[in-house]
Structures are given as C-alpha cells and as structure tokens.
Amino acid sequence: MNKTENRTALTALLTALLGAIIVTALIPSCYASTFAGDVITFTDLPSTIKIDPGSQASFDVTLRNSGSIYGDVDILPRSLPDGITVVDGDCTKLVDMRKSVTYHLTIAASNDMEPGTCHFEIADRSDVDQHTWETIELHVGGRSVVATTGVTPEDGGARWSPGFGVVAVVSVLLLALYLRSRL
Q1: I need a labelling partner for 153 at 20 to 30 A (CA). Which of 5, 67, 114, 139 fits?
Q2: What's the domain range around 85?
C-alpha cells in the first residue's frame, strides 16, 4: 500500500470507530433497563425537619449502593408544600458499588408560611435503579435549629462522573490527532 492508500484506510477506520463511540455515547445509560430491584437506598435521613417562616433549613441524606454497578444519582423532591422551595439540592454524584454518599440539601420557607406540620417526599434518581421515595415531616414555626445527620461517606467523598461516552469520545479524538500527526 502506498502512503495515500494508508491514509485513506486509516481515515475510514477512525471514522467508523468514532461513529461507533458516538452512537454508544448517545445511548443514555443503556444498562438502565436491566436493574433488578432497589439497590440504591437511603440509609440515613432525618424523619423531621424544623423551619421558621422566612428562613432556610439544611439537612443531610445518605444513599448506599448495594448493587454491582455504579450510578450517577441525584435527589428528587416531590409534594413540596406551598411556600417551601429547594434552594440547594446538591448535585448528581457518583455512587460506587458497595459505597455510600451523603447529599446536603437546603430548603427555604416563605415569609407568609403558616405554622404547622406537613410532609414532603424525596427519592434517589438514577438510571440504574428504581426510585426510593421517603417521607420527611416538616414542622413550620418555632425557633428550632435543624440538626444534620453528621454521616460521612464511606469512600471519603463523592466524585463527579462525566460518563463513559464523554471519556470515549475524547479518547478517540486524541487518538485520531496522534495518528494524523504520525502520517
């Protein structure tokens, strides 16, 4: 083969490889439909939160992954009472196999929130597990400070995961640049 034929063959190979990786990257969590049961569960969360009208309250929840695959997981609230908003819901974190991760959440109560007791729910949200909905009781009024759980993740902290697709695409692009510079 001459140099032009080598270059053409290499370009075709890189194009096919890049196409396969892009297709793989665009399939969001293709393993999601194979989950069997509830493997990401809450291991620690407050049963009651106290908040005053016009103030904020912070609390921690801990999720444990008892499955055999990692998952990018975030916290999903629902059934928030009128006047309650999530100010900081933390972010999506990587929950490794057989590890726990703690999320720090902050809610706010409007100034005109009526004192009383109400409830809301939170769930883990990932592509590798079904949602686990948990109910938290909310006491509005009084001047109590919310206690946090104080639980530290077993793995020393959570890590952000860009996902396989991003890593694969970057790797192929770097390989293509390297091979092109060698021709």
Answers
A1: 139
A2: 32-152
